[in-house]
Amino acid sequence: MQGFYTILLLVVSNIFMTCAWYGHLKMKQQFSWFEHLPLIGVVLFSWFLAFFEYCFQVPANRMGFRDNGGPFNLIQLKVIQEVITLVVFVGFSSIAFKGESFKWNHALAFLFLVAAVYLVFKK
């Protein structure tokens, strides 16, 4: 059950992270006030969102790490997090940036990351 909660927290964390890293690009297109915000304002906005990313990321890593009683070693945690990042990003970009296309080479790269998850769990 700890593994499930770890992954759930990582998903929520990555939603905030993706919004912090890329959400400002969409907001610039949708809100005129945001377009005129100086770069420092955009950075502060992203930091605000990143705070919530860390509120989920840190507990996920603590709970999931084997040395803290969790089911995953450090490398497994990192690879899981990378795959979650990619899945969340693909979903976010498909919804927020409809002009961006998901191509065959992107799908192949995703499959390689899934293969990486398989390999880090292989004994």
TrEMBL record:
Spans traversing the lipid bilayer: 7-25, 37-56, 77-97, 103-121
Top-level division of the source organism's lineage: Bacteria
UniProt key word Repeat: no
Alphabetical UniProt keywords: Membrane, Transmembrane, Transmembrane helix
Pfam families in alphabetical order: DMT_6 (PF04342)
InterPro entries for the chain: DUF486 (IPR007437)
Descriptive protein name: DMT family protein
